[in-house]
Amino acid sequence: WPGLTVCATYQLDEETRTKRGRLHAFAVDSAADKALSVNQVWTAPCAAVLDAKWSQSRPLLCTAAVQSTLEVHQPVRGEDGLSLEPVTSHVGDESSPIFLSLDWADRGPAKEQQPHIVVSQSNSTLSVWRLAEGGLTQEREWRGHDLYGGDIEVWIAGFDCWHRSVVWSGADDCKLKGWDLRAGDRPTFVSSVHEGGVCSLQFHPHREHVVATGSYDGHARLWDARQTRQPLHALETGGGVWRLKWHPEAERA
Fold first, then answer.
1. Residue 58: CB partners within 8 Å, gap ≥ 6?
2. Among 41, 123, 228, 238, whose CB has the most other CB atoms within 10 angstroms?
3. Could you give the CA distance from residue 23 to residue 37 in angstroms, rounded to a whole number?
4. What is the C-alpha to C-alpha distance for residues 103 and 122, in angstroms, rounded to an integer?
């Protein structure tokens, strides 16, 4: 679906303390003079969303939201125009943690027929889900971070898009951790380089072993995944790096 952009929102009602969200779909077109045309083509209410990502192997959008909500949508073009139709979902109860981020395992070369999704949560845990014809199934969950034994936000988790059994995570404990899903619940490494919570990370889709992380210590860092004692480079950004992404085109990444 080239030219389709989706924006997902999170809003807190200060009076009722309830959280709500919306999905907005936009058609983005580039004119001959390189000016961008952006038009909203669809919108609908949803759970308050913290993260949203497209699958790279099929036209599916997954959102991570409050109340342990995962929702998978598919763009559909009908008589009334384009819309995002629900495919499957998982919703917890009112006591369930917030799903803070997600990542598909089908980015880069590591494609798979039944994509897995890793989720970071607000109660110190991470979980891995499998999307199949029967819907979303949680395959594992483990406690990945804590602060003096208490629950904290695991702000980000991401698959190594070259090795889909490898996951990295970052949290409010200022730790960056690596995990091998074949080897149990002990981290493969723990880095304490960040001076604030680790809130974003992404593996390079075209260069193996290259990873970028962001923190609310105001730095974006570049890593070699084979050597995690120190980053290759740190860039001062002037503010918290809550999200970062590599350009999808190899020559521009």
1. 115
2. 228
3. 19
4. 16
**Separation CA 116–CA 181 (nearest Å):** 12
CA–CA dist 246, 240 (Å, integer): 18
pLDDT digits (tens, 9 = 90+) for 72-121: 999 999 888 899 999 999 999 989 999 999 999 998 876 676 789 999 99
Answer whether 27's CB lies under 8 Å from 38's CB. yes
Instruction: Say how many residues make up the chain.
Output: 253
Of 47, 87, 38, the C-alpha closest to 66 is 47
Structure tokens that stand for 13 in this block: 């009602």
Which residue blocks in 104-202 are alpha helix, DSSP H?
Answer: none
Query: Residue 6 contacts by C-beta under 8 Å, 6 or more apart in sequence?
Result: 23, 24, 25, 26, 52, 54, 61, 84
CA-based end-to-end distance of the chain:
21
- The C-alpha angle with vertex 24 and arms to 47 and 243, in degrees rounded to 5, equals 75
Residue type for 214, please? G
Give CA 57 to chain center in angstroms.
Answer: 16
> Could you report the per-residue pLDDT of 126-137, keeping only the tens digit for each?
999 999 988 999
pTM for this one? Answer: 0.94
